[in-house]
Write a structure and sequence with these properties.
Layout: E1 2-4, H1 6-10, E2 15-20, E3 26-29, E4 32-39, E5 42-50, E6 53-67, E7 74-88, H2 93-98, E8 106-107, E9 110-112, H3 113-124, H4 163-174
Antiparallel strand pairs: 1-9, 2-5, 3-4, 4-6, 5-6, 6-7, 8-9
């Protein structure tokens, strides 16, 4: 969705409220697509603070099905979207970037709402999702979910640095 800020820029101390529907049904993060299973309409407020400064407020909520990082069982993850920023429209994109005010959601006098919402989802998305802090994960041999019970596989991990010593013991046993 694209919102023109020109009208708001021309009238000092005016505020406009919008209700935005985020159209995509999934979000791609680090090359993985996550399906949005629930989403609220996003409330957006744009206000002219005078002096070519625009205040933007955004609020909403998204719910995703994200697999557990250990056992891959899907988990319900809620990502709130809360954003508040004042943008000086008298500055160019390069000047804003040099001041570390990265506003890729502003293009000229247009507000790219979908881009802003996507960036806020990225910021709020958890780095790792676990079904439980004590999740045992999957068996490395057969792939069984160890939270449901033991599978009986031998999962002994040997230290590769000790391979030479293991070879000596194997040769001694053979003699």
């Amino acid at each position: 969705m694209l919102i023109s800020l020109s009208e708001i820029m021309n009238l000092p101390n005016i505020s406009k409220d919008f209700t935005v529907v985020y159209e995509p049904d999934e979000v791609k993060i680090s090359g993985i697509s996550y399906k949005i299973i629930e989403k609220d309409d996003i409330s957006l407020s744009v206000k002219n603070n005078g002096g070519k400064k625009i205040a933007i407020k955004l609020a909403g909520r998204f719910v995703f099905n994200v697999p557990c990082g250990r056992c891959l069982v899907p988990q319900r993850v809620e990502v709130p979207v809360d954003f508040e920023n004042e943008i000086d429209m008298s500055l160019s994109n390069e000047e804003r970037a040099s001041q570390l005010d990265e506003t890729e959601y502003i293009n000229g006098y247009d507000l790219l709402v979908d881009r802003l919402v996507y960036e806020e989802i990225l910021l709020g998305f958890p780095m790792k999702v676990l079904c439980d802090e004590d999740c045992k994960g999957l068996c490395k041999v057969c792939g069984a979910n160890l939270n449901l019970g033991e599978c009986g596989c031998d999962r002994t991990e040997l230290d590769p640095r000790m391979a030479a010593i293991r070879d000596i013991f194997k040769s001694v046993k053979e003699v």
